[in-house]
Design goal:
Layout lengths: L4 H10 L6 H22 L30 H5 L5 E2 L2 E2 L7
Antiparallel strand pairs: 1-2
Helix pairs in contact: 1-2
């Protein structure tokens, strides 16, 4: 499969892009190069390769979920630009 200038024009139209003739030719060449590379990868024999999500054998990299004390109201309010009775005050969104 190869990309034509007409394909690039169609996608540009869908994306509401105005492309010059130079850009259309450039994108056509770039997209065809990508497709050729994908075809080349498809030729590889991967029958003996197990599917993986990571290159390295990583299990769980998350820390243990352990309870710990929360930040106090006074400490949290030190970062608030505006505060009212221990609550963050923000501009109204609705009228």
């Amino acid at each position: 499969m190869s990309i034509t200038i007409k394909d690039v024009e169609h996608v540009a139209n869908l994306a509401r892009l105005e492309l010059s003739e130079e850009e259309k030719e450039q994108f056509t060449g770039q997209l065809n190069a990508i497709l050729n590379y994908a075809e080349k990868l498809g030729e590889l024999d991967t029958s003996g390769v197990e599917p993986t999500t990571h290159v390295l054998p990583i299990t769980n990299v998350m820390r243990e979920d352990e309870p710990r004390p929360s930040t106090g109201v006074d400490k949290a309010m030190r970062n608030a630009p505006d505060e009212d009775e221990g609550q963050f005050r923000v501009p109204a969104v609705l009228e």
